[in-house]
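Issue: copy button drops trailing tokens. Both records pasted manually instead:
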Amino acid sequence: MKLISQNQTIHVDKTNGTEVDYYLLEDVEIHYNKIKPHTLQEWHRHHHISENIFILKGELVYRYLDEISHEQFLILKQGDLLSVENDIHTFENQTDEVVEFIVFRYLPSYKNQRELIKNDKEIIER
């Protein structure tokens, strides 16, 4: 078991209007993010990691460039999960409310392990 309390996180108030608590493990980063109203983050991409965004509260716009570099967007709402691959992308809060979301970042194995993950539970009778 490994517990990371909030007081053990790395807290960063970014100049782009995002507040982040970094929960760092050996093979995964989990970030709790708050993005201020009417805030656009910088455009960026990831070459190796998989970045997955889970919206906890509010509405977040995911902007990305398609294969011919045209800007596209998706509106993410509470309960949505977005798996970002190596797209050039940014996130924007166009609302008057703070948006809260969790980011899961890791190096993917590129193997379909869905069944192993889904069924890796042993019931123990006590």
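Record 2 (pasted manually too):
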Amino acid sequence: MRLLPSAWCRRWLAPWLLAPWLVGAASAQLVPPSAPSAPLSLASDPAVLARTALGTERGTLVVGVLRGDKAGYGIAHNPEPLVARAIAPASAEQPMFEIGSVTKVFTGLLLAQAVERGDVALDDSVGKLLAGQAEGVPPAVAAITLKQLVTHTGCLPVMADGVTGGAALAEQFRSFDLPMFWAALARIRLTAVAAPCEARYSNFGMALLGQLLALRYGTSWGELVRARITEPLGMNDTVIPLGDKASRMAPPFAGDQRQQRFDMHAYAPASALRSTAADMLAFSRAILAGAQGPLGPAAARLLTPLARYEGAEIGYAVMVRGPETGRRTYYHAGVTEGYRTLWLLAPDTAEALIVLASNQRAPLQPVMLAIGKSRYPVPTAEVPIDPKRLADYAGEFRVGKAQVLGFTVRDGRLLARESGKGYNGLTPTGPDRFAVTAIGAQFVFRRGESGDVNGVTLTQGGSRLEGRRVGAAAVLQD
């Protein structure tokens, strides 16, 4: 889920193994002074991961790690003394958290189940599923398919009515009921003439998908989740209405400020679920079991790539990283006004990770980057380069419709940045190769027939962005 400011949230909710390359040396500021000296990975002690991911922020953070059939948990609290300790899966200490946009994975699984049942097809359109249910839906909107909704390629905006962030976004999440939602669909403005579009994250699109599935089965989205996912898997603490579980919710924060819990109606399929680490590992275990597990073939379908997404791929609302023939990582992240979540699967090692924080600003980034580095290492040994050759790489390289990478030379060093951001120093690691070693990002420049540099490839954490040269180097201002 995206909350204020929208640009800040984009970094956390989209390619968490890719976009943070920009932080460079600043990433050290996100690591608490007591951070472990040993590199973090999925094999790390969950208690150590918990302490690192909470840092010095207020609140509670629980990490659950699944390794084969064994689950382990770690918990950290602030402002109590920064002590990380183990937590039992059935313990009353298992607090509950809002999981934000990780809810979208449940909506994706509902679609995978519906496709496996033959109840819907990926090419079914919004108009087909809404027949006789809503009026005034523009033809271009009615033509959007379920596949485009679940992969964010349907040209739909982040939210309805031009809302992109701030208080208006939070208010729309809270206030929109179904009549308001369907009325907004009739006036929705696409980001292009017609789908499909380059993938662009849309809470509205994922909520629309969930509500269309609810219409198809004549029930509510929440009831579908209960009947087809949480109840069969014994996930008794994964709910929307809290009822008598309200006292188990970890108090939410944004920095030092207490926050309210985030209740919603029509947008429920995008961000409404609450859960525990134990429940989320039960969910992970069922998906890792594949077609032979309790979810049947839908578990495998959930992870099937369907479209390109910001340098990598996306399945049924699940982000996919890594090469098609190599190790792959599946994940989603979430953030609400007072909580932050990361859910991740590594089927090649039969591992899963859930990080649940009761602070919107919990510094999960060091943990996320460390896992990306450990699963997708890049060369980091420095290889000396003639400073005169650095000018070959200076210039601007477009890697997407709205994303440009800029390179310039200063004091005998090549620097890189994304449009509008600060520069970061690069380490030469070989011919036409440079790295941001702290975060496991690599730039490989390409040369044309003339020998001039005309392109660049950025790889990090299993993602890959291709850029072509579009302009000269920027001039650095002192």
